[in-house]
Design brief:
The complex is a heterodimer of chains A (about 110) and B (about 120).
Chain A (H helix, E strand, L loop, with lengths): L3 E3 L3 E5 L4 E7 L6 E7 L6 E7 L4 E4 L2 E6 L4 E6 L8 E8 L6 E3 L3 E6 L1
Parallel strand pairs in A: 2-11
Antiparallel strand pairs in A: 1-3, 3-8, 4-5, 4-9, 6-7, 7-8, 9-10, 9-11
Chain B lengths: L3 E4 L2 E4 L5 E7 L5 E8 L3 E10 L2 E4 L6 E3 L9 E3 L8 E8 L10 E2 L3 E5 L1
Parallel strand pairs in B: 2-11
Antiparallel strand pairs in B: 1-3, 3-8, 4-5, 4-9, 5-6, 7-8, 9-10, 9-11
The chains are: A mainly beta (about 110), B mainly beta (about 120).
């Protein structure tokens, strides 16, 4: 598999602020990166996909970037709300596209 | 659509016992996978299948068997449970979809404890 790292285990932020999560990968750049949300006791849920040739992707208050020079993706939650509290996982394909390597995740807690 | 379903939700086994974790999907997805999730280690791929009758190993296949006789079902068998297999197990299904990328749809998980 291909290694993928999310560089902070936990992030605590105030409601209304922007949370920024980092995902770093090694070796060759993947064709795309995926981001998932996982709530306690539940399975991950797909949020966003960003392709290698896309610098930025947005979905509502979420923004993802992909920097192939730095081998890094940033995941931003703007105007954060307590309901955004969850663990966020980054994933990249390896081998065939349907196999994914996941990072360990970053747990975000948004304080009211 | 129920999506991806898994049973049981919780299970406690003694070392050496065997059991089967069930997984089913109703989205007609070709690809199905089993992952285990351990604290601080992320999701690790155990086995996967690209269609009925076709399975292959992932990163951590030892101690587990799979089969895929239908598109819908993908059971995971623990042959002789060991404490190291204590984990949360997730089944997932995917298809290329309109994006061409295999977004995974996960089940709710099975929390397994081996004593």
């Amino acid at each position: 598999s291909q290694k993928i790292e999310q560089n902070s285990e936990a992030l605590n932020i105030q409601e209304g602020k922007t949370a920024t999560l980092t995902c770093n990968y090694t070796n060759y750049s993947p064709a795309y990166l995926q981001w998932y949300r996982q709530d306690p006791g539940r399975g991950p849920v797909f949020l966003l996909l960003i392709r290698e040739n896309e610098k930025e992707k947005r979905k509502e208050r979420l923004k993802v970037t992909f920097d192939t020079t730095l081998k890094q993706s940033l995941f931003h939650i703007t105007a954060s709300q307590p309901a955004d509290s969850a663990t966020y996982l980054c994933a990249r394909p390896w081998g065939n596209d349907y196999k994914l390597s996941f990072g360990a995740g970053t747990t975000v807690t948004v304080r009211a | 659509n129920a999506g991806v379903t898994q049973t049981p939700k919780f299970q406690v086994l003694k070392t050496g016992q065997s059991m089967t974790l069930q997984c089913a999907q109703d989205m007609n997805h070709e690809y199905m996978s089993w992952y285990r999730q351990d604290p601080g280690m992320g999701l690790r791929l155990i086995h996967y299948s690209v269609g009925a009758g076709i399975t292959d190993q992932g990163e951590v296949p030892n101690g587990y068997n799979v089969s895929r006789s239908t598109t819908e079902d993908f059971p995971l068998r623990l042959l002789s449970a060991a404490p190291s297999q204590t984990s949360v197990y997730f089944c997932a299904s995917s298809s290329p979809g309109t994006s061409g990328a295999y977004e995974q749809y996960f089940g709710p998980g099975t929390r397994l404890t081996v004593t």
